[in-house]
Amino acid sequence: MKVTVGISNRHVHLKEEDLKVLFGEDYELEVVRPINQPGQFASNSFVTIKTEKSELEHVRVLGPVRPYTQVEISMTDAYKLGVRPPIRDSGDLEGSLPVTLIGPKGELHLKEGLILADRHIHMTQKQKEMYGFKDVDFVSVAIPGEKGGIINNVRLKVTEKAYYELHLDTDDANAHMLHDGDIVEII
Amino acid sequence: MKVTVGISNRHVHLKEEDLKVLFGEDYELEVVRPINQPGQFASNSFVTIKTEKSELEHVRVLGPVRPYTQVEISMTDAYKLGVRPPIRDSGDLEGSLPVTLIGPKGELHLKEGLILADRHIHMTQKQKEMYGFKDVDFVSVAIPGEKGGIINNVRLKVTEKAYYELHLDTDDANAHMLHDGDIVEII
Fold it and tell me: What are the φ and ψ backbone dihedral angles of A16, each rounded to 5 degrees?
């Protein structure tokens, strides 16, 4: 079974009230580029992620607004920021790390929300069954090439609407010389 | 068979004449910290790596001087610099990328020398035979943990003097959440 790779650079999801604090009362996220997951999009809104040690500027906000505010970075980013976030599924934020967000209109000091996103493959329940993963929650994926190998602990993430795609962070992508749209094999 | 992990951050090796251009006529590299490979050391000398697109400051020079000048970066660095260097063994620089080095006393425009270092395990010929790798040139290594998996195409690098150790760049390390001194298994 094959799957297409989608690479997630560091990014931020915002809940409505946090969007207002950072960008102003009537601000709305604008669709610059739809991403493959249905309804999701890259906006042209950016924030600075700040920790005690350092900061990362110009981090893109993905839309639409969500019920929670979440900051997804790579381990390489985490070293720069001097933090060790847990590896988590989107929305699973209890006990994740505090972080400060700075927007053009305000600052937010979040008690939690900073994570490393886990390796996952988006799919619908129907796709999960159709592709032979009915009773499977995690798979491994074979990566070809000079910096190839096998990546483990790839979660099958089932949502009502989904575009079938493997999401990896930039560390996984760069370590394995992967690019958006590469096709790899689930084993 | 197990092996200890050593992580290589971006760094520079210099030949004698290039050291003089960058740091001055009578400059000598000072041992700040020996590294595990016999005779090799971290110096307290730093250069800037520059390309047409961007630059990386404060990149450490490793000593002692070598017969060639070589710049080793990660793919993450390469994206920042806007270049796509080949994956190479140390010293195998023909057709590698041009790069500019800036030191406190001068600049160097190298026609080649910029590479991504390959994944490799240092060993002596005696260790190679003793550990059961007599006719083997490449191995795979199993990485445990939440971001674990298997990394392929790890070259067995034989030198006269060697400290038995797996060298990975920061992309491989960060993707797999590895740290200096971690112990992993050759398969």
Answer: -50, -50
CB-CB: which of B74, B146, B153 is closest to A148?
B153
How far does the CA of residue B18 sit from the closest CA of chain A (Å)? 30
pLDDT for A19-32, tens place per residue? 999 999 999 999 99
pLDDT bracket for residue A152 (50, 70, 90): very high
The domain spans of chain A are 10-117, 120-186
**ipTM exceeding 0.95, yes/no:** no
Contact residues, chain A, for B171 at CB < 8 Å: 76, 171, 174-175
Q: Determine the 3-state secondary structure of A125 from DSSP.
A: helix
User: Nearest residue on chain A to B141, judged by CA atoms?
Assistant: A149
B40-90: per-residue pLDDT in tens?
Answer: 999 999 999 999 999 999 999 999 999 999 999 999 999 999 999 999 999
Distance from CA of B105 to the nearest CA of A (A): 29
pLDDT at B34: 96
Nearest to B153 among A118, A146, A175 (CB): A146
Length of chain A in residues, anyone? 187
DSSP B118-175: PPEEEE-HHHHHHTT-TT-SEEEEEE-STT-EEEEEEEEEE-SS---EEEEEHHHHHH
